[in-house]
Amino acid sequence: MDTDTEADRLRATLDDIDREIAVAVSGGIDSLTLATLAHAHAPERVIMFHAVSPAVPGDATARVERIASEQGWRLDVIDAGEFDDADYRANPVNRCFFCKTNLYGSIARHTTAQIVSGANVNDLGEYRPGLDAARNNDVRHPYLEAQVDKAGVRRLARAAGLGDLAELPAAPCLSSRVETGIPIRADILKAIHAVERRLAEDFPRGTIRCRVRRTGVVIELDPETLKAVTGSREAAVRAQVADLFAGEAATADLVFAVYRNGSAFLHGIA
């Protein structure tokens, strides 16, 4: 499918919605592109909602607010309230179900518009309990309806003029770094984000995940970055991680490993 066809199908999906549209914008490339295209196609009936919480990196919020200002979006920044939900904080395997349930419920309290998400075709091949929450809240997924996958989203982003953002790496919420069953705490998420930001300063093109597991902290990196960090710089990185996690999690047995998507859902992996 070429970009023009993908864009046409996406616009047709938006046209099929016969009321105002509320786009849930996390700050990732999927939702940013959807918001950009929806606003360009029907600005008078599209409003964006971005939720802030300890699980959402501040740079994601800043990115949303910057693009909203540049493009003239109607943007409503809200607190989805997931940290008030004991089921979410308990961090079960289906934590995302409770996160998205709170998000969509909060958006629905602010508007009667049709809520849409940035889920794309590739998401169907992964464990995504958030899609169950979407189904329960009658959320629509324009990319799924238009049969657009992740590569297609990036093509649409480039065509829409989003520049370098088209290559924005996947960045799930910070809670995804905490192993299933370990309670979610705001201070732990703050430390996780601080570690990832610090490493990203030295390796801006690297894939970096700071995981908190029962065995301690694990830093997952793409192979090239892993090789660089575990060489002559390992001692410095260990000291930085220990400092940033001081009092929050054990770092004495810090482990470096190759990045694996979704590995925090698994128990006992070092």
UniProtKB/TrEMBL annotation:
Keywords: Hydrolase. GO terms for molecular function: hydrolase activity; sulfurtransferase activity. The keyword Hydrolase applies. SUPFAM superfamilies: Adenine nucleotide alpha hydrolases-like. It comes from the Bacteria. InterPro entries: LarE (IPR005232), Ni-pincer_cofactor_biosynth (IPR052188), Rossmann-like_a/b/a_fold (IPR014729). The active site is at residue 173. PANTHER family: EXSB FAMILY PROTEIN (PTHR43169), NAD_GMP SYNTHASE DOMAIN-CONTAINING PROTEIN (PTHR43169:SF2). This is Adenine nucleotide alpha hydrolase. The lineage of its organism: Bacteria, Pseudomonadati, Pseudomonadota, Alphaproteobacteria, Hyphomicrobiales.
